[in-house]
Amino acid sequence: MVTIHKTNIEKAYDTARTKAKQIHRPVLLSIVEEVDAVDPLSFYYGGNSFHGERFLWKDRDHTITLVGLGAAHILSTDEKEGRFFTVENEWKRFTQESVIVTGDKWAGTGPLLYGGFRFDPLNDNSEEWNQFSTGTFQLPMFMLTKPEKTNYLTMNVICHPDEDERSFHERIRLKEELLANARKAIIPERPEWIGNRDVKPEEWKESVQSVVNRLQKGEMDKVVLARKCEVSFNQQVTSDFVLDNLWKQQPDSFVFSFEWEGSCFIGATPERLVKKTGEEILSTCLAGSIARGNTLESDEKLGEELLEDEKNRYEHHLVVDSIRQALDPFCDTLLIPSTPQLMKLKDIQHLYTPVIGQASENTSLLSLVEKLHPTPALGGVPRDKAMHVIRQEEDMDRGLYAAPIGWIDAYGNGEYAVALRSGLLQGDKAYLYAGCGIVADSEPESEFKETQMKFRPMLRGLGGTVHE
Ligand SMILES: C=C(O[C@H]1C=CC=C(C(=O)O)[C@@H]1O)C(=O)O
Ligand SMILES: [Mg+2]
């Protein structure tokens, strides 16, 4: 990796081209510059000439927003077991040969790989998820990074050995145009909502009962079962208006979109899988749910009920235990409070235990993702047995729902969320997914109601009427 500090970009371009000629391979040139304040959503809408190749990421702590336009490079794998390492090694190799022009090494700027790993590489019941590989990632052509108050723009160009200079100048012109577009107010178009329907709701409740019977016999401790809801529109649904809604409606969640080959995976999830900045790592145990109350008093009462409820505490405890076991071997220090607190979101409250650790040297972000996924907040205990039951019982493909989605930069910093409260926009349909942790004393009807609450953020985000 060659890092050049604040130089003439023509010179950097020559360096990259010369390098490409020497190694007989294309070389990535990544140019980072500080720009005047840009509204991330306007940058996204204004980049609609890249429709189908855009992404947006906002974390739940409001520390970073990323918007990517266009794909300078695609990295995907169909490997099953080794997919995390394949992506990691490919990414390392690719960035090691790159030329980066930057003022400093800010996390989330420069070369950055955005995308996700499918929930279950062994599920080939594909339906709507055909176009996604077991790991699907892109390096954006243009990317806006907003860490709190600053604004950076990264331009990624793949320089070929026989590169024609004109295409480079064309990219610079395009970058200026995208920044100018983002400063004009663009209001996203909203298609008309036709209706929504639960897919096989009665069958799902029967599955819950059959899993409860097995749990009561002691075959396993926990299995998370999910179901699907389908929403129809009068015309193609694009991600713009959905993002606009989710951004405003779910300030305390990760808001993300990932446009890919005509579809868009989108959502507002409260759950972090893992974040790594230098050696510091953060993770989240999130499991156990109850409704929000209509008044402050009833809301507090429900919160207290959740904190004391044995069934929910058990659901949660299994997640804490498993995350501790996964992270402990990779950490010099690991801090996990012994009792959960409440995470209150617009439609639901959860039991929540934050995790902070100091990773031992040479621990990579994707190796942590590999160890953590799927946590028992989406899979179960024991993991392999639960995955087998999910394949048997769910009769669908989760695709990227409940899967790790996020980013990694050239310095190994990054963050992956667990893609809950999410859906796939495809043509004039949106497919939404929601699941529940099933334990021995689960009741199908009340778990069904829990999934109804978990569909609400996306139903509202899609413009549906949600009874508060
Ligand atoms: C599987 C989902 O939620 C998980 C995260 C929080 C609470 C959960 C629960 O109480 O069952 C689930 O484990 C989902 O939202 O689809
Ligand atoms: Mg639950």
From TrEMBL:
Keywords: Isomerase. The keyword Isomerase applies. Its EC number is 5.4.4.2. This is Isochorismate synthase.
